[in-house]
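Annotated sample (chain length 184).
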Amino acid sequence: MTSPTTCPAHGSHAPGHRPRAVAVGVVALSLALAGCGDSRADAIDDARSAIEALPHIGAGAKTDFTQQLTGLDSEADLSAVVERATAVNDLVGQSLGWVDGTTTQGRPHLTLEQDGTVAGDERALLMMGSPTHWRPGQDTFDLCTSQDCAYWSAWEVQATVAGEYVFSLVGADQAVTRTFLPGQ
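Output written by the structure step:
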């Protein structure tokens, strides 16, 4: 829990505090001030700022999310866009278990670490091309077998309502998707 004088939007927060709560809270607070000036524009600006502050998604993805804010005027709609953007951002640092239609016991897992490396068990890493490093692409998460790669594989990532992360390989001759659940 943050103290009343702590400002989570500027990076000072209690251990365990999630950026998602801050981003959604900013939008909710802006819309709650409906009687104060141009609250709709302020709420959209706050939502846009919350998305722009997300460190793990690329500029193209941020643009896509902020464009989705255009024309929205309800707290629920604005919060939903910010929440989707924040969910994609928050996959970094989480252990992700591969969803393959079988039991959750012994699922292959991987983690995009905060330091730009990729960790996981051999099966999960093989399914993703045996990456050792990741970086945010324009609107993808890029994976490669070394930090100095000339050619990175680009994966679009979508967070689903069910809490899954769907990775889709960009530019493949055939559709290649991998679905993961956090904390598995």
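Annotation: The first helix runs from residue 19 to 32.
Annotation: The chain has a mean pLDDT of 80.
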